[in-house]
# Entry
Amino acid sequence: MNRYVLTVDLKDDPAAIATYKQYHQRVWPEVLASLRTAGIREMEIFLLERRLVMVVETDGRDIRHCFGLHHGSHPRVIEWETLMTSLQVPPPGAPPGEWWTVMTPVFRLDIAGDTAAATGTRTR
# Structure
C-alpha cells in the first residue's frame, strides 16, 4: 500500500464550506464505488477553516493514476467532481491546473521510536 497526504482550499465563502461539509455527510454511492475500483483503500478528509487535508492509502498504485481512473469512471462521478471543484481553489504552491496537491513529507515518528526525515536520515 502507498500512503499520500494531499491538500486543497475551499473558497473563502461560508456557504461553499457548508455545502462541502453537507455533501460529505452522504457521499454518493457511485463515487464511493469508483474510488474503491480505482485502487483507493482508505481515505480521510480533515478540515481547518478553509484548508482540506486528505490522507489516502492506495492498493500500491500511484495516487494520480488512481484519481485518473476515478475521475472519468461514471457520469455521477464526473458530476460530483465538477461540483466539488466548484467549491475549491488550489492551495498556494500548487502546480498549474492541479487542485488536490500532494504534500511532501518532512517528518515521521515510527512505532519503534525512531524518527526519520523525508531524506531518510535517522535521528535519536
The CA atoms of residues 7 and 81 lie 15 Å apart.
